[in-house]
Amino acid sequence: MGYQAIQGATTVGLICSDGVVLASEKRVSYGRLVASTKGKKVFKITDTIGLAFAGLMSDIQALVREASAYANLFYFEKNRPITTKAMAKLISNMLFNRRMMPLLMETVVGGVDADGPSLYSMDPVGSLIPDDFIAAGSGGAIAIGVLEAEYDKKMDCESGAELAKKSIRAAVARDAVSGDGIDILIIKTDGSEIRTAPIKE
Prior knowledge:
Radius of gyration: 16 Å
Helix content: 25-40%
Largest sheet: 5 strands, antiparallel
CATH superfamily: Aminohydrolase, N-terminal nucleophile (Ntn) domain
Shape: globular
Number of domains: 1
CATH architecture: 4-Layer Sandwich
């Protein structure tokens, strides 16, 4: 079973005028098997930083636990929250250190800090790429087409959340290993909010 088969998912991230939107569908697949319809692939790490993934659930959960612990340690040592860029570099280093036995997933880091909203994508060995919008996973090729056509950096988080849903729904219509609902994390300077939306409107 190749990497493409393992990473079944559709995950997107967008920078908006007032924050960042991260979203992913909920289907957990392993090859041809739907293992769960209630998977969580979008996580709040701090009040202003979130992670979204496409990949193996065990690897995702292990990285989230480690990243959360580092974010808490940073806060206790420095008495201030970690920045989005620092969190992305930290996760990039964690992935690169495991490159001989990589975590089988694609990672999206988004957040808002003093420098404004920012978004980063990483492959399994930690290549760190900043971008305005990102699509990952087996449905990413379809989702990115919708984002390319309709994304505007001036859109607010509400419009961004609607575009994220539209791009994931387009991917789910063609990607058999994506589906079963959409989790959306909206991050603004004054805090964050997690929503769930159905695949069918």
